[in-house]
Amino acid sequence: xxxxxxxxxxxxxxxxxxxxxxxxxxxxxxxxxxxxxxxxxxxxxxxxxxxxxxxxxxxxxxxxxxxxxxxxxxxxxxxxxxxxxxxxxxxxxxxxxxxxxxxxxxxxxxxxxxxxxxxxxxxxxxxxxxxxxxxxxxxxxxxxxxxxxxxxxxxxxxxxxxxxxxxxxxxxxxxxxxxxxxxxxxxxxxxxxxxxxxxxxxxxxxxxxxxxxxxxxxxxxxxxxxxxxxxxxxxxxxxxxxxxxxxxxxxxxxxxxxxxxxxxxxxxxxxxxxxxxxxxx
Amino acid sequence: xxxxxxxxxxxxxxxxxxxxxxxxxxxxxxxxxxxxxxxxxxxxxxxxxxxxxxxxxxxxxxxxxxxxxxxxxxxxxxxxxxxxxxxxxxxxxxxxxxxxxxxxxxxxxxxxxxxxxxxxxxxxxxxxxxxxxxxxxxxxxxxxxxxxxxxxxxxxxxxxxxxxxxxxxxxxxxxxxxxxxxxxxxxxxxxxxxxxxxxxxxxxxxxxxxxxxxxxxxxxxxxxxxxxxxxxxxxxxxxxxxxxxxxxxxxxxxxxxxxxxxxxxxxxxxxxxxxxxxxxxxxxxxxxxxxxxxxxxxxxxxxxxxxxxxxxxxxxxxxxxxxxxxxxxxxxxxxxx
Lengths: 281, 337
Description:
Chain A is of the alpha/beta class. Chain A is 23% helix and 30% strand. Chain B has two domains: 2-187, no CATH class; 204-336, no CATH class. Chain B has helices at residues 9-18, 94-106, 114-122, 172-180, 204-213, 218-226, 232-236, 281-300, 310-314, 321-336; strands at residues 2-5, 22-29, 32-37, 62-71, 74-78, 87-92, 123-128, 154-159, 164-169, 186-187, 243-249, 253-260.
């Protein structure tokens, strides 16, 4: 007998793409079909997994691909430490370990027919990219889509190919921005911080849903703009990340107050965030 | 009534070992008494409260949870079998036995930890009714008692002026242990000694209520300033269960390890990007008290503290969670007036 909850699936890297300095996307295929079936029975957008390299360790990231694409799992991560460096060093044809999916999900079935506004900063786009594709893969189910995405510099924008794709679609309004000083001579997008750019884009908030993900400082200044635009706090979603080890509520470190990010989250509404102690985030 | 002479605990251990049990008992180790695996010749001393709790025999300090063979850039999973030997724990304190019941909830919180459950199933806890308590004991403030039976499979009780033990089975595992120990147990009568007297030091309900309203309090800063951040309190605690997962490897093999960890250490919540949601010792003390007296109550309907007092006995800064709780209780009472 082993401890079943800590046995990972083996996943083969079938595609690796550098998105930005130190940021890479991996497309992973389950080595065992039974693991794939089990994963997609449970997986909903917003859930996360623990990706690892034996000998280096495991790290928690979101699943960046939607459940509408059932052949693979994608993750996008920044190399910041020992584990992410080891995952970064794996090449196409090699394997990583994966366990999950864990956590709650965005309740997208309750958003049918409604306008959806996605707001992301930097490496905050991957956790909601799965939702964007999930929505776009189901034409007719949802209302108009707006994406506001900013990064420090042009080089720091992730999913550059997909941004071009989204920008060309008639069913998506895409606004990209870089921080002042981060633009290049041929930059066609906006220059400014995300909250400012969102304020100018001014997507109507009444009846709409907003998803926000990015650095804490961006979220802090974006929330008041969303309220000003008429979004209801119960319709504004974000996804939190904290250091995690087990992913299943037992290792004791990801909680914000009494709320466990791994079990009660990672997806929370602004309404819920207001009842969580800011000093613990 | 099953009776054992007070000096015959090693005989009980020996007969259980012969019956195939791994025997864990309070063993003298220099100036300390520690819960340790008993071997023939080791003296058992059930007098002092052991320095360590029983949790390490059900939840080891370090445990392999996954194993891989490595070959260049490829790897393959290997079996990582759970070690769950049939175990008898002699003279476990009621506070420790109760703590195992609290941990049952954590390790079966939707996701079931097979290792914990296998070891729980394989372990028979023989609780010792405390005949003496010290100034750090506060089981009666957190719902326990020196003669509480929660979590125990059998009970040892001092009798006839500490000259004998009465051994009583409380369930199937306890009955099996008594049957295995029949050779050293006598039938007879004895008068149980009174259990220790442990005064109620605070009202835990008041602490739970206070925690719900005092996420921001100068108390956390004061505690944080005094705390050295060594983590002894958590490692000695029978209920503290926070853990880390780390990999270790050679060129040919890697193991994924689960190690004890604690919210008292700065790295516990440190993000790789640099942010730390609990940036100072004040935030970590808040987490420690809140988890034990508020969050655990909200999640599982009970406290994550059984009043053993080990954290206070070991603390190099002489911080005592019971004293903290008493101050909270008193402050609350004063505020209500």
